[in-house]
Specification:
It is a single chain. The chain has 89 residues and is an all-alpha fold. The chain has a domain of 28 residues. It is built from two helices and no strands. The radius of gyration is 36 Å and the shape is elongated.
C-alpha cells in the first residue's frame, strides 16, 4: 500500500512536469563560459610552471651527470698516467 501511494504521488507531479522546459538566459551561459575560460587559463599556467620546473631539474641533473662523468674520466686518466709513469721508473 505504501509503495502504491508513493507511485501515485510521483505520477501526480511527474505528468505535468514531463513537458516543462525552462530556457536559460544567455547571460547565465556567458558567465559559465567566462568561468570555464578562467579555469582553463589557470590550468594552463599551472602546467607551464610544472613544465618549467621539470625542464630546469632535468638540466641541473644532466649537467651534474656530465660533470661527474667528465671529472671521473679525467681523474681516472690522471691516475693511469701516474701509475704508468711509476711502472716505467
Amino acid at each position: 500500500m505504501d509503495e502504491n501511494l508513493r507511485n501515485q504521488v510521483d505520477r501526480l507531479f511527474q505528468d505535468p512536469l514531463k513537458s516543462h522546459r525552462e530556457d536559460i538566459s544567455p547571460a547565465v551561459w556567458n558567465r559559465i563560459e567566462e568561468q570555464l575560460d578562467k579555469d582553463d587559463e589557470l590550468l594552463l599556467n599551472i602546467n607551464k610552471k610544472k613544465h618549467l620546473w621539470i625542464i630546469a631539474s632535468l638540466v641541473v641533473f644532466l649537467t651534474g651527470v656530465g660533470a661527474f662523468g667528465f671529472f671521473a674520466l679525467s681523474i681516472e686518466q690522471t691516475h693511469s698516467c701516474t701509475f704508468r709513469s711509476k711502472q716505467s721508473e
